[in-house]
Inverse folding.
């Protein structure tokens, strides 16, 4: 008997972000622009709803798919905001964070030998989750000259035509790129022509600063082949409450729920109560957070411009993705932590296409942001 | 959004942002920021800038009270006339006409309770239009000007996360 890792797990390396976390933890006076979550607390009304639900002892399991009340709110919310039309009973699955939903989708629809095309740079979980599901991963590197938008060119060049699934995330972590409806159209055309399914991670949908977010599922012929992921972590600053959801046609939700019902049973109940309140009564707070992020975004982009660091005008999430002043972005990130106490994450951690860049998070108060950027300026001088 | 609409919320959030930082946050030129602020000031939209101070942490301690005032009006005297007269006293920090059980809510500040009490009984109560005063001494401040007076707002996020 031994704990020899499965071959599947061996295909998944330890997270590349860990090293920077450890370095940052060693520093006393660290300002971190390396986080992937909001600096705000969830709207008070949502927290209060969570507390009230605990006081009432509402701590039992919920239905597998989530509280019906919550699913109804979700359906109304995505209809109002993104023109998405889903049925609360059959086409919504509430999960423990959007991450769980992504994992379920990989496992539900892939066999060994299937190919998952992942638009990169991207959130760290897609590649490992696809591999753990037994699928092969095809890198689809987006390009700086396209402002990290996914284009038909890179889909064709990378061989995505033969893939089974395409994974994309806009507004994007780590680049802050967004895509308009017009820019998504050629992607949708390609997907339909080659009969791919799409996993659209839209967790940052509420944080699009220059145009309204368009869900790819709203393009013609896309709804039936798309799973949309969203959740409460980013827009409502509820990361630790672990609550997300998937929207997809009934048969897809049915399949994902078959895994979910055995492995998770139901998403955290307390978080579901908070989420109902968040959707009902917290849009003002979301708008206020969005305004704050937008101002910080302007601030950070201006500062990089003043420093002479090339940085495309990221228009979503809470990240900018400047070009690294050194050739080796890992070396730069390490030295920046050690010498100036500022943490950023080198772009290569997020996959092909990210090398030579840095992910800089602006989910940090303006005072710290200002200080961190002054330190970066001093460092590159 | 007009430059006023961009600048005003930021000044209200933190009046000490430099013009450069205001420009960076709003996408306006520094010159536009300066002009907008000048305009807000000269139009009387922005009436002043002050620090929000936790008075428990400074010496000497000051006493503050919130005073409810009831008044009677006549043909010659309106609310504005009474307000104008009260507002001239340096002890009066704030003065508002309010709806409800009383007419004016007045903030008063002094070095001691007796000083504040004397001010109310000797300067305010004798004003002919004032029919009643109710003084509430402020015992503890938890939030002022949108700022919570609590200790430790530590960032407990992991320093690096995906």
């Amino acid at each position: 008997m031994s704990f020899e890792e499965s071959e599947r797990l061996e295909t998944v390396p330890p997270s590349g972000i860990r090293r920077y976390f450890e370095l940052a933890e060693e520093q006393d006076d660290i300002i971190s622009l390396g986080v992937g979550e909001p600096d705000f607390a969830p709207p008070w009304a949502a927290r209060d709803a969570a507390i009230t639900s605990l006081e009432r002892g509402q701590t039992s399991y919920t239905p597998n798919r989530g509280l019906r009340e919550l699913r109804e709110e979700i359906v109304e919310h995505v209809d109002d905001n993104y023109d998405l039309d889903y049925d609360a009973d059959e086409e919504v699955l509430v999960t423990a964070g959007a991450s769980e939903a992504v994992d379920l989708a990989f496992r539900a629809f892939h066999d060994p030998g299937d190919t998952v095309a992942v638009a990169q740079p991207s959130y760290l979980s897609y590649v490992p989750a696809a591999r753990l599901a037994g699928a092969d991963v095809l890198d689809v590197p987006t390009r700086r000259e396209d402002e990290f938008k996914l284009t038909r060119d890179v889909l064709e060049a990378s061989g995505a035509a033969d893939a089974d699934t395409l994974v994309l995330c806009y507004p994007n972590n780590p680049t802050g790129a967004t895509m308009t409806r017009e820019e998504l159209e050629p992607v949708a055309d390609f997907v339909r022509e080659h009969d791919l399914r799409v996993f659209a991670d839209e967790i940052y949908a509420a944080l699009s600063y220059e145009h309204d977010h368009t869900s790819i599922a709203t393009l013609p012929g896309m709804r039936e082949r798309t799973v949309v992921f969203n959740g409460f972590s980013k827009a409502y600053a509820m990361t630790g409450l672990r609550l997300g959801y998937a929207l997809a046609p009934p048969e897809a939700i049915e399949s994902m729920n078959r895994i979910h019902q055995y492995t998770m049973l139901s998403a955290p109940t307390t978080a579901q109560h908070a989420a109902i309140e968040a959707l009902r009564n917290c849009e003002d707070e979301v708008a206020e957070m969005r305004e704050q992020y937008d101002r910080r975004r302007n601030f950070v982009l201006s500062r990089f411009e003043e420093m002479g660091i090339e940085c495309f005008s990221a228009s979503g999430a809470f990240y900018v993705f400047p070009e690294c002043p050194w050739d080796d972005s890992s070396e730069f990130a390490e030295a920046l932590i050690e010498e100036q106490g500022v943490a950023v994450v080198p772009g290569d951690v997020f996959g092909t296409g990210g090398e030579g860049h840095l992910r800089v998070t602006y989910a940090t108060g303006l005072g710290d942001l200002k200080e961190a950027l002054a330190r970066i300026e001093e460092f590159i001088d | 959004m007009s430059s006023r609409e961009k600048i005003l919320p930021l000044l209200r959030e933190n009046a000490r942002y430099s013009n450069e930082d205001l420009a960076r946050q709003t996408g306006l030129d520094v010159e536009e920021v300066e002009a907008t602020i000048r305009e807000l000031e000269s139009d009387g939209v922005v009436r002043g800038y002050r620090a929000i101070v936790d008075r428990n942490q400074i010496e000497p301690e000051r006493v503050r009270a919130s005073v409810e005032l009831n008044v009677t009006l006549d043909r010659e005297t309106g609310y504005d006339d009474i307000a104008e007269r009260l507002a001239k006293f340096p002890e009066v920090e704030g003065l508002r006409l309010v709806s409800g059980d009383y007419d004016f809510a007045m903030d008063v500040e002094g070095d001691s309770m007796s000083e504040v009490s004397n001010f109310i009984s000797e300067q305010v109560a004798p004003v002919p239009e004032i029919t009643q005063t109710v003084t509430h001494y402020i015992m503890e401040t938890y939030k002022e000007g949108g700022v919570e007076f609590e200790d430790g707002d530590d960032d407990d996020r992991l320093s690096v996360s995906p």
In short: Chain A touches chain B through 28 residues (CB under 8 Å). Chain A has a mean pLDDT of 97. Residues 283-307 of chain A form the longest helix (25 residues).
